[in-house]
UniProtKB/TrEMBL annotation:
<dbReference type="GO" id="GO:0003700">
    <property type="term" value="F:DNA-binding transcription factor activity"/>
</dbReference>
<keyword id="KW-0805">Transcription regulation</keyword>
<dbReference type="InterPro" id="IPR036388">
    <property type="entry name" value="WH-like_DNA-bd_sf"/>
</dbReference>
<dbReference type="Pfam" id="PF03466">
    <property type="entry name" value="LysR_substrate"/>
</dbReference>
<protein>
    <recommendedName>
        <fullName>HTH lysR-type domain-containing protein</fullName>
    </recommendedName>
</protein>
<dbReference type="Pfam" id="PF00126">
    <property type="entry name" value="HTH_1"/>
</dbReference>
<keyword id="KW-0238">DNA-binding</keyword>
<dbReference type="InterPro" id="IPR005119">
    <property type="entry name" value="LysR_subst-bd"/>
</dbReference>
<dbReference type="GO" id="GO:0003677">
    <property type="term" value="F:DNA binding"/>
</dbReference>
<feature type="domain" description="HTH lysR-type">
    <location>
        <begin position="2"/>
        <end position="59"/>
    </location>
</feature>
<keyword id="KW-0804">Transcription</keyword>
<dbReference type="InterPro" id="IPR000847">
    <property type="entry name" value="LysR_HTH_N"/>
</dbReference>
<comment type="similarity">
    <text>Belongs to the LysR transcriptional regulatory family.</text>
</comment>
<dbReference type="InterPro" id="IPR050389">
    <property type="entry name" value="LysR-type_TF"/>
</dbReference>
<dbReference type="InterPro" id="IPR036390">
    <property type="entry name" value="WH_DNA-bd_sf"/>
</dbReference>
Length: 295
């Protein structure tokens, strides 16, 4: 009978990059990992890995086997972890979530309210996301979940939480009705948000950033900057709806391009613990728009 644990070892060695790291991940000894690889080699009748310096590199057969089986391995691991008793009401675990400043304003109040009632002793740590490293942080367990409006293009899982539009905001009276065209906006100085935050939808229509613009790394300063200057800005509609003072701003919908974006919850293929799996499920169920529940 085939030992399915051999596939767990194969997946760990490929994902972690070495026998040493795989042993640490699976909480096994290095000789036990090597023995498992040798057993799998005999079953498959292939070397699977080739020596490269002091390490090993998977060959084509190993990569194909990994591609065909790794998702099932991770699902089985997740199912087993789900059977391990976890009581959210008594847990003192720390859950880590990556949220932009917009996410903190739009999603955090709702999430914190639910956390207070379902896991009152747990700690929630909120970090600012960097799209260049967030996928690795999710896979390593450094983060439990990240909420972003950008496609990470990584082999991690995600769920759509919300669909929203980006709007153009300007100082009151800067543009006459029916508002600025896309061509007007391309050459107009603006407040741009750095790309690592993930808010890049409008920038792909507008780049390069024209002279006289200001680049910021959060949205917090944009309303006051725009209201007091001739700069224009582009912000998600959900954020605009949280602003109390809007009397000095004009808000425009740009119909010439697609401005709708998906806000997604990203999480690892295989949560590192039953606590993390619970937290991911809670966030998705709490924050996902009801209209998306059946999609």
């Amino acid at each position: 009978m085939f030992d399915l644990n051999l596939l767990r070892v194969l997946a760990a060695v490929i994902e972690q990059g070495s026998i040493t790291a795989a042993a640490e991940k699976l909480q096994m000894s290095q000789p036990a990992i090597s023995q498992s690889i040798n057993r799998l080699r005999k079953v498959i009748k292939d070397d699977l890995f080739v020596k490269e310096g002091r390490g090993i590199t998977p060959n084509r057969v190993a990569l194909q086997l990994y591609s065909d089986t790794s998702e099932h391995v991770h699902q089985a691991d997740a199912a087993v972890r789900g059977l391990i008793a976890f009581d959210p009401y008594t847990t003192t675990a720390t859950f880590r979530i990556a949220l932009t400043d917009i996410g903190q304003q739009v999603f955090l109040p709702r999430l914190s309210q639910v956390m207070r009632s379902t896991a009152p002793q747990a700690q929630l740590e909120v970090l600012g996301p960097n799209t260049e490293s967030v996928a690795d942080q999710l896979e390593s367990g450094e983060l439990d979940l990240a909420i972003l409006s950008t496609d990470l293009h990584n082999d991690i899982r995600s769920a759509v939480l919300h669909l929203g539009d980006y709007l153009c905001i300007t100082r009151r009276g800067l543009f006459a009705n029916p508002g600025p065209s896309l061509e007007d906006l391309r050459s107009h100085p603006r407040v741009a948000v750095t790309t690592f935050t993930g808010h890049t939808l409008m920038e792909k229509y507008l780049t390069p950033i024209p002279p006289g613009s200001i680049v910021v790394n959060t949205f917090a300063a944009i309303p006051n900057l725009v209201a007091s200057t001739d700069l224009v800005g582009f912000v998600p509609e959900d954020l605009v709806n949280t602003w109390q003072a809007r009397e000095n701003l004009d808000i425009w919908k740009i119909d010439e391009v697609e401005t709708q974006t998906e806000v997604r919850a990203y999480f690892a293929k295989s949560p590192g613990s039953s606590a993390s799996a619970w937290f991911v499920h809670l966030v998705i169920e709490t924050l996902r728009d009801p209209s998306l529940n059946n999609t």
